[in-house]
Structures are given as C-alpha cells and as structure tokens.
Amino acid sequence: MKTQSLQQGLLVTNNPFSRPLLRSRSFLVVILALSVLILFSAFVFCNFWSRMSSSTATGLFILLYLGVGGQWIRAFRRYRQIYELYLTGAISEVSVGSPMEIVLNVAEKSMVDGLLFGTLAMLAFLTVLVHFLQAGGATFTGGLR
Description:
- This protein has 145 residues and is an all-alpha fold.
- It has one domain (15-131).
- The chain is built from three helices and two strands, in the order ββααα.
- Strands 1-2 form a two-stranded antiparallel ribbon.
- Helix 1 packs parallel to helix 3 (99-134) and helix 2 (54-88) packs antiparallel against helix 3 (99-134).
C-alpha cells in the first residue's frame, strides 16, 4: 500500500479534511449554492414581504436562517474537529484505500451532500413560493384572500 507523506504537519492527500476548507472544490460548489440561496432569499423578502403575513414572513425567515444556517454551522464545527486531528497529528498516516481513508471520504461526501441538498431544497421551496406569490395577486397567509 502506498503511504502518503506529511508536509508541514498536514497529510498530502485528496481528502478535503487535510487542508483548509476553501481549498476543497466540493465545498466551494456548496458555498456557491449557499450564496445563491442568500441572494434569492433577499430578493424574495424585498419583493414579496408585503404579500406575506407577518407570521408567515417570520416563519420563513426562521426556517431559512436558523434551519439552513444551523445546518451550516454544525457542518463547519464537524469539519473543524476533523481538520484539527490533522493539525495535531492525531491522524498521522493514511494509506490509500485504508479504512481511515474510506471513513474520511464518506464523512466528506456526507457533509457535502447534506449541505448541498439542504440548500437546493430551500431554493426549490423559495421558487415555488415566488411562483405562488406572483400568481393572480394571491397572498400567502395560509390560504387565498
């Protein structure tokens, strides 16, 4: 089995946990999707605030920023925990194809999938909401007025 070497205290590997988060292409794609969600939600709130009841607007705000934001905060904390294992040398050697490499790859892919699909689901929800709010002067208060 090939063993990957240490370079400046970090493993040289394809695993994104061995380097800073912004150097991982998969996380950059997810961060781009989150940026689109933030811009689109700002558009929805600016253009359709008056067509939503205050409780609906507040609920949507909480869903977006505490639900999706909380998911991102938890993911960053988990990433940081694994990254610190690399920094401290607790993970000092990972062989290609080893169980440790497989576990780290599964963790990375699970984290990326969870963040990406959570963000895309919220974008889809907002798209449906915008379509509903644009249709025939409907207001979103739990029913049509």
